[in-house]
Amino acid sequence: DTAVSQTPKYLVTQMGNDKSIKCEQNLGHDTMYWYKQDSKKFLKIMFSYNNKELIINETVPNRFSPKSPDKAHLNLHINSLELGDSAVYFCASSRRLAGVEHEQFFGPGTRLTVL
Amino acid sequence: AQKVTQAQTEISVVEKEDVTLDCVYETRDTTYYLFWYKQPPSGELVFLIRRNSFDEQNEISGRYSWNFQKSTSSFNFTITASQVVDSAVYFCALSDPIKAAGNKLTFGGGTRVLVKP
Question: In this predicted structure, what is the pLDDT of residue A50?
Fold first, then answer.
């Protein structure tokens, strides 16, 4: 009965490689997000999709590309990985009912380590 | 631009003490939402509360209580009679509702709470 799931949980890779992180939510939410948490625990939004449409695209290197095949999935692909990409990446989802924003539910996070 | 400040980086208490976490925010929006999340050592982010800007009533849920004061742009969080399981990093967040749907959360830097037995 997992609400928001991410795979993999841990990802260790070499600089220059390309990798993907997958996210799925079974809550029926329309909006999904990617956040990055750095080594100092600071959380910052990267992207958001609503019904497969990109609605937030923060200042993120274009090596990062989100893809939403359907509203239950939001994947994150990263090209040419750099040391500074090492972080924990969180996926989240939320719903909006009658114009009211509801809380975001977060996945367990993916710890990416670039060597 | 929105901003959330959690001035306390770390608080250490002994079990059963009360602990209050401060959160001060900045926004030009008249309608917004405030949130608190808990991140235990296991790493997941756990939703605790959502408060909309029009509702200034304080809220209590078990040992947790929240004090929202719009006049001072603060949304403080108190844990009463703390327990070791409360040890975690706590994040305050402010939403920036997008016109179509969804909202962008701006997080504070977090406050690490350490409860010692």
Answer: 85
Compute the mean pLDDT over every residue in chain B, rounded to the nearest whole number.
92
DSSP symbols for A17-69:
--EEEEEEE-S--SEEEEEEE-TT--EEEEEEEETTEEEEE-S--TTEEEEEE
Q: Do residue A100 and residue B52 have CB atoms under 8 angstroms apart?
A: yes
The residue among B29 and A20 whose pLDDT is bigger is: A20
Distances (CA, A) of B27 to A29, A34, A101, B37, B115: 26, 22, 17, 19, 32
A40 with B109: Cβ contact below 8 A: yes
Q: How many angstroms away from the CA of A16 is the closest CA of chain B?
A: 27
Q: What gap in Å lies between CA B82 and CA B20, rounded to an integer?
A: 10
**Distance of alpha carbon A49 from alpha carbon A111, whole angstroms:** 22
CB contacts of B101 in chain A (<8 Å) are 30-31, 50-51, 55, 96
For chain A, helix, strand, coil in percent to 5 are 5, 60, 40
Mind telling me how many Å the CA of A57 is from chain B's nearest CA?
10
Q: Which of residues 47-106 of A touch B (CB under 8 A)?
A: 48, 50-51, 55-56, 88, 90, 92, 94, 96, 100-106
Distance CA B81, CA A35 (A): 32
Please, which pLDDT band fits residue B55 given cuts at 50, 70 and 90? confident
Tokens of A21: 């992180």
Separation of CA B14 from chain center? 21
